[in-house]
Amino acid sequence: MKKVREFIIGGAILTMAAGAVVTSPPAIFAQNEAKEKVHQRRGMHRVPGAHAPLISVALKHRAELNLSGDQVAGLEKIRTQFQDQTAPVQQQLRTVEDEIAALLQQSPANLIDARVKIEQSEKLRSELRYLRVEALENGKSLLTAQQRDQLKTLAGSGPRGFRKPHGQQS
To answer: Which of 44, 64, 71, 72 registers the highest number of CB atoms within 10 A of its CB?
Structure first.
């Protein structure tokens, strides 16, 4: 009887300790940080360190870049198409990330389902990344070489700068 009581008490202590780890500030912070990354409004084709998407920067500085009416219309069309294409994907990603969070709250977590959802979220992230690259390339194709160089300078004049990580080529 004494061993049964010790076993039950030991199990209860282990369960409370596991619960404390899951609800500890670092664990909660990591979960919230991961969720915030997904829920942040991501601009299209952000450059590391840049505040605004490059197409938006180009449109904001249309006079300095000497953009023609056709270029402005084309960039606005690309931006609108990008937003229309990414909105449903971003919503799906938020839903999948919420499902992952719910799966990880279960005790024990269903690792098979979690893996499937994680793979699904990465596929959606990949799709978003491709759509950003596609929009950026389409936007760049509307600009002259001089306008692209000037855009890099304009984007770099912000508070955080437009800098590529050391060693990365353009």
So the answer is: 44
pTM (predicted TM-score): 0.62
| pLDDT given for residue 42 in this prediction | 43
Name residue 91's amino acid. Answer: Q
Nearest to 54 by CA among 149, 167, 159, 169: 149
What's the average pLDDT block by block, 10 residues per block, for the chain (170 residues)?
60 56 48 47 41 83 94 96 97 98 94 96 97 94 94 74 45
Q: Which residue has the tokens 């001089």?
A: 146
Give the DSSP H/E element, type plus range, for residue 4. helix 2-22
Q: How far is CA 1 from the centre of its chain?
A: 55
Q: What would the two tokens of residue 34 be?
A: 């991961």
Q: Domain 41-156 carries which CATH code?
A: 1.20.120
Q: In angstroms, what CA-CA distances link 3 with 6, 10, 14, 15, 17? A: 5, 10, 16, 18, 21
Hey, what are 54's tokens? 């490059």
What string of DSSP letters covers 101-113?
HHHHHSSS--HHH
